């Protein structure tokens, strides 16, 4: 039902998650990120509360593995959960319960971790990691989108993909990027990539407006010339 990748960029300190699913509005339930703390994707038979619980553990100084173990060991339905974690050093941890659906796989790479279930084949997840680590000079968003597209090209899910999302946090307390395709019957990942290309060149301007309106460029609305 879902494949995802979480990534960390040491150059910028940003964390991000890109994911897609046959279910509606996957980005409303699965990705959880906190600036300076880490990133969590809670998927398969999703329990959204696992994300915030693990982020609390990370904020307390636990490693990715320690935070994941502490939360998943207390979860009575752990066999149905698939969870990935990145801590504030970019170290990763992953859990796939015994009842993870269909063909499933997890791969940990340099400053990233990917996982999926109900896959067309197990190589989908490796393709995502390989795409993410290919060029660390690219922006985190570009790398995450490339990884999601690589997973799709490697086979993607066993069934259709209807939703996708990209979420990135930087140094602020709010997301730098939060893009969602909640339902698209033809090409949810392609639509997400299109939104990213529209959003990326504007993102810094929106950040400047928030932090220092005096230095902000014009707002691009009628009457604001």
Largest sheet: 6 strands, antiparallel
Question: What order do the strands of the largest sheet run in, or round the barrel if closed?
Answer: 7-8-1-2-9-10
* Share of β-strand residues: 25-35%
Question: Which sequence of SSEs, written as H and E, runs from N to C?
Answer: EEEEHHEEEEHHEEH
What is the percent of helical residues? Answer: 25-40%
Summarize the structure.
With 225 residues, the chain is an alpha+beta fold.
Keyphrases for this structure?
225 residues; 5 helices; 6-stranded antiparallel β-sheet; 4-stranded antiparallel β-sheet
Description:
With 225 residues, this protein is α+β, with helices and mostly antiparallel strands. 30% of the residues lie in helices and 28% in strands. It is built from five helices and ten strands. The chain has helices spanning 50-59, 64-72, 123-133, 140-153, 188-211; strands at 2-9, 14-21, 31-34, 38-44, 81-86, 92-96, 105-109, 112-117, 163-169, 175-181. A six-stranded antiparallel β-sheet has the order 7-8-1-2-9-10, with helices on one face. Strands 3-4-5-6 form a four-stranded antiparallel β-sheet, with helices on one face. Strand 5 (81-86) and strand 6 (92-96) form a beta hairpin. Helix 1 crosses helix 2 and helix 3 (123-133) runs antiparallel to helix 4 (140-153). The longest helix has 24 residues, at 188-211. The chain is globular and about 60 Å long.
Q: Helices and strands in order, then pairings?
A:
Elements: E1 2-9, E2 14-21, E3 31-34, E4 38-44, H1 50-59, H2 64-72, E5 81-86, E6 92-96, E7 105-109, E8 112-117, H3 123-133, H4 140-153, E9 163-169, E10 175-181, H5 188-211
Antiparallel strand pairs: 1-2, 1-8, 2-9, 3-4, 4-5, 5-6, 7-8, 9-10
Helix pairs in contact: 1-2, 3-4, 4-5
